[in-house]
Every structure is written in structure tokens, then in C-alpha cells.
Q: What sequence folds into this?
């Protein structure tokens, strides 16, 4: 077997054994782009070998979506397959595992009227809610595994012939997910252990704030009251550990929406709706980004920040060491799962409930400093020149990272 095939097999095995941590006899519900049919068959084979009882796949087709948006009457765009999502939600609650194969053409809907695209997406998001809730509540084990979609490969490697671009993207995926290592399963066990150690350390320290210092950056990010750090393998409600994201390198928590001060410069470009936003600079006062600039793509960023008041406040802060396998690829992936995991990052917009003790909602969520917004956009600030300190309320500080690497 050649190296490519071997790595693909290892990735499929990782998705089933580490990503899902599939239980014997469990049902699997997969979603995937239609282009991934061969990869899905490989995943199904691995799942059955691990004892799956039934592997069902629901294929998405961006070409079909395009045809609908171009040809269907506008009122028709409010329709979404609620019956399908309700069925998925029921299956998850009854114990089926959820396997999402990611990878799409970021330009698939280019040239279509944005209001039609928005209308269809909104209807779909509303109908999908029961399934999404089951997933975010971790009623079952789930994972997202990447597939080198040709459209995605074209975006990452413009100018290369498609076949070459796809091959290069697969290689980057193997590197980022550790599928190219001798024993990827053992590598992930060690990786999860390291992430959980950091989470336990940070949760025990209960820092009041983090201080980021690097070229163009001098930023204090206050942490929400009763914040919780998360990262790596996550237990389901029933106590089964799964890895929702392949890859993942971050430990992350909720900032306090009103306690962010100072200036910060992006360390890597941000892919936003198919465009690259480069050289982002922001200045925060009492949690609000009073000044935001970008050397390139500022318009796209500005439109995002105009969504609502919370879009100019932070909903996530994440620590990622600079010497990780994704950063080492040196690529911009145009995919959040990869790009945010390349470096320490902050996110404009919505905070996660699971980053606050007791998962408060509504007024309680806001009172503790949780930020609310319709958007959540991660942008990378970490680098090999970034130092990070944990700050206690009395002003004492503990070095956490030096030159982008953990020192605890
Ligand atoms: Zn993150
Ligand atoms: Zn995020």
C-alpha cells in the first residue's frame, strides 16, 4: 500500500476510534459532501469493523443548492427539511453517533444574490436547531473529520492543477490531524493528556485575566466570572469521551465582555467569506473594540462588526502553542477548524455556554460577562514572539507562554 492510502486509512480509523470513540453496536449517522463518497465508504468500513450496527449517510450537494437558489421561487426559500433534522435529533438522543465529514467549495455560491442565500440559510438554521442542540449538549458522541474537497483545495492552492492541489491538501490534513504519524492513536492519547493537563492547571488557577504581549500587541483579556477552560476530548452526557474536532490544538475559555483593554495585532490572515483579511489591528476599551483596522479586506471585517453590539466584543480566548502541526504547514486553510488551531486566538462575538460554570443562559450569562452576538469569528494573534501571563486580581502574574510556547 502506498503512503497516501495508508494515511487515508489511518485518518478514517482515527475518526472512528478517537473522534467518535464508537461503542460496539452503536448506530452512526454521517453527513458528507457528495464528492467524498469513496472516503465515506472507507469510514463506514472502519465503523463496521469497530462494531457499528448501522451506518447511514446523508450527502450534501452544493451544485443542487446552487440550482435551487438560481431557479426556485423566492418564497420557496423559507422551506427546509425539518423532518430530516428532527429525525436526526431523535436518533442522536436515542444514542446514534454523529460523524460530520467537512470540506466544501468556499466559492460554490459565488455570484448568487446574497439576500436569497441568506434567506435559505436562515430557514435551514431554524430547522436544524433540534439537531444542533442535541449535538452541543453532547447527548451523544460526535466528531468532524476533514475531507480534501477539490473546491477547498483550489482555494488553499490557487494556481496549482486540481489533482496536485487535492494531493497537497490531503498531505496537510494528514499532518494537522497527526494521521501521518507512526501510531496516530497513541499520538492522540498523548495529545489529549497534554491538553487536559493545561485545562486542569488553568481551571485550578482561576486567573482574573490574561496578558498578551508581542509585536504590536499589549492586550489584557479579563476572564468571565466562573469561567471554565475546555480543550481536547470531551465527555458526552453519558460519560463517553469523544474528540469533536479533528484537528484540535486549543484550550479555550470565555472572556469577560466588559474587561478587555489594550491593543492587539493579528499574527495570521483571516479567511472571511472567501476573502482574506490581513493585518488586523484592534484597540479595546472596557471590552469594546473602539478601533478596528485591517491592511487588506477591511470592508468585509467592518460589515461583520456591524452585525450587532456584541460583534465588537470578545466571546472566546484560546491558547495554542506556536509549534503545533497545523502552524508547521504554513498554510491558510480557509477553514476555521484548521486556521483557528494554528495559533492562540480571540473571537469577536458569541461566547460558549460551556465555558461558564453551570452553563447559565440569558441574564445570568450576561451578568457573569458572557458575550452575546449572532456572529463568532476567531482571529489569530499568537506567534513565536508572543508572551502570555496569567493575572490574579491582586496584580500578581504567572508566566504561561514565552515566545509562543507553554512554560507551565
Ligand atoms: Zn477557538
Ligand atoms: Zn471560536
A:
Amino acid at each position: 500500500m502506498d503512503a497516501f492510502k495508508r494515511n487515508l486509512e489511518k485518518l478514517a480509523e482515527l475518526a472512528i476510534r478517537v473522534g467518535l470513540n464508537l461503542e460496539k453496536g452503536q448506530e452512526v449517522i454521517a453527513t458528507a459532501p457528495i464528492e467524498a463518497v469513496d472516503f465515506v465508504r472507507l469510514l463506514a468500513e472502519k465503523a463496521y469493523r469497530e462494531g457499528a450496527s448501522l451506518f447511514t449517510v446523508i450527502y450534501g450537494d452544493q451544485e443542487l443548492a446552487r440550482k435551487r437558489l438560481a431557479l426556485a421561487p423566492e418564497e420557496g426559500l423559507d422551506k427546509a427539511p425539518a423532518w430530516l433534522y428532527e429525525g436526526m435529533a431523535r436518533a442522536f438522543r436515542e444514542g446514534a453517533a454523529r460523524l460530520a465529514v467537512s470540506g466544501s467549495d468556499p466559492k460554490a455560491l459565488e455570484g448568487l444574490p446574497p439576500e436569497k442565500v441568506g434567506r435559505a440559510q436562515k430557514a435551514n438554521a431554524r430547522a436544524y436547531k433540534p439537531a444542533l442542540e442535541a449535538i452541543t449538549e453532547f447527548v451523544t458522541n460526535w466528531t468532524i473529520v476533514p475531507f480534501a474537497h477539490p473546491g477547498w483545495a483550489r482555494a488553499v492552492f490557487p494556481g496549482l492543477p486540481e489533482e496536485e492541489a487535492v494531493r497537497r491538501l490531503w498531505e496537510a490534513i494528514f499532518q494537522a490531524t497527526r494521521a501521518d504519524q507512526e501510531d496516530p492513536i497513541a499520538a492522540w492519547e498523548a495529545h489529549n493528556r497534554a491538553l487536559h493537563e493545561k485545562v486542569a492547571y488553568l481551571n485550578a488557577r482561576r486567573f482574573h485575566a490574561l496578558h498578551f504581549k508581542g509585536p504590536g500587541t499589549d492586550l489584557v483579556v479579563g476572564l468571565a466570572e466562573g469561567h471554565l477552560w475546555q480543550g481536547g476530548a470531551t465527555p458526552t452526557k453519558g460519560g463517553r469521551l469523544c474528540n469533536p474536532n479533528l484537528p484540535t490544538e486549543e484550550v479555550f475559555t470565555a472572556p469577560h465582555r466588559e474587561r478587555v483593554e489594550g491593543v492587539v495585532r493579528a499574527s495570521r490572515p483571516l479567511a472571511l467569506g472567501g476573502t482574506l483579511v490581513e493585518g488586523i489591528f484592534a484597540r479595546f476599551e472596557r471590552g469594546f473594540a473602539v478601533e478596528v483596522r485591517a491592511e487588506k479586506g477591511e470592508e468585509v471585517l467592518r460589515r461583520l462588526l456591524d452585525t450587532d453590539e456584541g460583534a465588537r466584543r470578545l466571546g472566546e480566548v484560546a491558547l495554542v502553542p506556536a509549534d503545533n502541526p497545523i502552524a508547521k504547514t504554513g498554510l491558510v486553510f480557509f477553514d476555521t477548524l484548521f486556521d483557528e488551531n494554528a495559533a492562540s486566538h480571540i473571537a469577536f462575538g458569541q461566547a460558549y455556554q460551556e465555558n461558564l460554570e453551570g452553563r447559565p443562559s440569558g441574564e445570568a450569562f450576561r451578568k457573569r460577562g458572557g458575550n452575546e452576538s449572532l456572529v463568532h469569528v476567531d482571529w489569530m494573534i499568537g506567534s513565536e514572539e508572543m508572551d502570555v501571563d496569567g493575572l490574579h486580581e491582586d496584580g500578581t502574574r504567572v508566566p504561561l507562554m514565552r515566545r509562543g510556547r507553554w512554560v507551565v
Notes: The chain has a mean pLDDT of 94. The chain is about 35% helix and 25% strand. The first helix runs from residue 3 to 20. Residues 250, 252, 316, 318, 340, 345, 378 surround zinc ion (ligand 1) (CB under 6 Å).
